[in-house]
Queue: 2 jobs
Job 1
Amino acid sequence: MSELVTGDAVVLGLRPARLPSRALAAAIDLAVVFCVFMLVSVLVGIASMTLDEAAVAAIAVALFLLVLIGGPIAVETLSHGRSLGKLACGLRVVRDDGGPIRFRHALVRGAMGAVEILMTFGVVASIASLVSARGRRLGDVFAGTLVIRERVAVKRSVAVPPPPPWLVGRFSQLDLSAVPDELWLAIRQYLTRMHQLDPVVGGSIAGRLADELVMRTGIAPPQGVPAAAFLAAVVHERQARDARRVFVGARGADTGASVPGGGPAGVAGSAGAAGPVGSVRPVGPVGPAASGAGAGAGGFGAPGGGADPGAEGPEGTGGSSSGFAPPG
């Protein structure tokens, strides 16, 4: 894999194509181009039988330039670097920064290709591709392009780690309608890769994502809860709401319609068990059991290693409506 850094300091992991796949793609392209060249030459030869030798020679040079050189240039420009051979082999021509190529890139590649591929039967292009660390021929070097592999093995998707048990259901009253899809995607990507990051860098990313999530929702996490645990709990709450919409229906979930078991849809989805309407039950384990359970769930630990910081008490004992513990 070749790591390229763009102007925005974004590292691109590109997989350069090597000589065997590029040679196969070039052979397919040349076969198609020569077939088109021979067909056009026969048609033009029949139409120019009455012309003199100078005109026939001029037409032959024009056909060579238009078909054998101009054809690949036009195809690469219109297809953004995917000719027929590259499409069959899963390759694409891109710029050094990973962006799509333009006409000037295809023009330089086509002009150099006439020398290093057509006139030398591919010898110069093969040697340059073997010497280059990224498998580039001379046309790629002068044009500032790179041939990459688009078809790569798909990695198995990694599930988002579950939140600690003492945070499950604590955000059932949180308004998530203002959170954009881009932020959800960034949070999911962080949670699935946080164990691969440096602890300092990962903590900084988690803090920024948590701050942006707090700005969107307007409610801060409970005091002492790690940012990563807060993100995992909010993502879990959103997944629970999506599941309720699938099984209960959006209208039943919004109006609090009862589900099988006698409990309201909101209570059944957040608490994880149904009960009589109006009953109050803890959202998670409290006391010393909470710290022990939270330490081994999804890699998150209970803050301070003590009792549940946001455990709900009976009605009127100071617990907030959102399930957060009061500051201090």
Note: The radius of gyration is 31 Å.
Job 2
Amino acid sequence: MTRQELAEAVNAQVYRLTEKLTEIDANHIGKWERGDFRWPAAHYRQALRHVLNVDSDLELGFKRRGDGCTTENVDRRTYLGTTLGLGVGVALARSRRAEAAGEHVDELVASIAAPTESYRRMEASVSSQYLAPAAEGHLRLVKQVVRDKLHDARGFAALSEIAGFSAWLAADRGDTAAARARYQESIRFAESARNPLLVSYMIGSLGHFAVEIGDPHQGALLLDKAARQLDNRSPAAARAWLASLRAVAFGALRDRRAMTESLATAERLADRRPGEAQWPWVFTFTSAKVARYQSSALVKFGDLAAARNVYATAIPAMTAPKQQSLAKIEYALLLAGTGHQDEAAKLGVEALRVGKQYGSERIVSNVRTLRAKLPQHSREVEDLDHMLITLYDEDQR
């Protein structure tokens, strides 16, 4: 966990506990470590305790002395040593201890929210096939907790987050019906939480999902609905993210003017106040991420020359293997349709390796679509065919 990742996790945790937006960034974390800020506010210390899974401020290195305090004995490894948070079992155990000891409901909110953050971090390196049962089990658990003990805005917000993540995993497994149902559920929970920002995020996620599965008309309508939940007071990163998704939808609809305007909006808002807190579970929205969506929009629009230039910049900046592979396949489909079949097949091979490694049926399915657009014979296509045949052999075991 980097300092910036820790800062974002603290901002998210404070939001869960207080529904207040905070602006802790990597610089703040460094000052806490060095002792430049001797005693963070109570809600920051509480958030740090949950993110790093410790029981006291002393374990964080904060200690009162006389009428002041110091952080001279802060060990940086204490801050950065925990990256996956709490597991479901630990969360449930903490919930039971909190109830038995009569602790504040904040402890319960933090406990039910922590596993989802853990699963999100794991998603970059663990197959969705393995994560999905755990996420679904946690969703069932939290539904019961919210029904019995936490029937308020914060409980519904946690439910919305979990349902949205389950939808993402279902989409990665290629189960579009389950993904759509979970996204719809996440929207209902967000509405029950009375959080317009969260509602916008979940509707936007469903809209982008619709675009990606080949329904850009409905996707654009959903994205318009998501945009109506925001205003100029909404975080710049939220508006940049949504503008980027709309650009992709407009690209699929072949509306160049709307696509260009949306990309211009995203570029103008990206990187603004990088320490600005986002709604929980969303990280800083940068110009590099805008480039990723710009590439997707141009590919869907069919502009190979423009897409090639942006793609060359966007791909190296993407660190998540599955997301990078999805971008490669998207670009490869455009190449295949414009006479660059060998280059497309090569990208298909690269993406399929990742799809097999992480068990992503979405990547595998997209590679199969790509293969249908390629000629029967070439060295690169033969390599792709061999990998697909091997995949079918593995499926039969």
Note: Residues 66-102 have pLDDT under 50 and may be disordered.
